[in-house]
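Format is sequence with structure; example below:
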Amino acid sequence: MISLRSVLAFNMKVQRQVLGLSQERLAERVDTSTHYIGMIESEKKFPSPEMLERIAAALEIDAPALFSTKSYPSPGAGTMAEFQEEIIDDIRQILAYRVGKLNWERKPAPREGA
């Protein structure tokens, strides 16, 4: 059985990423701490009804959508941990590409006569 905490955490992360928000920016919109947002997304805390409404408003969705299982990975699709690892690997690849590109762009031009 899928837990409410898992569904909430998954939907918050997905919607936050759709909007291009960091946990910090979401926390600002909700008027709470980044730590608290992280605790909800890691399934360690469960927000009050009032906080759920503020989170939903900040994510530009209705509060019940936070508990929708429509986009939640099906049980046959792997575990939440596997899904999170896939997301982390994608982020690492993007960061490695960006850092590599920045380093390449910053390389000094070869000196003449060298």
The mean pLDDT is 83.
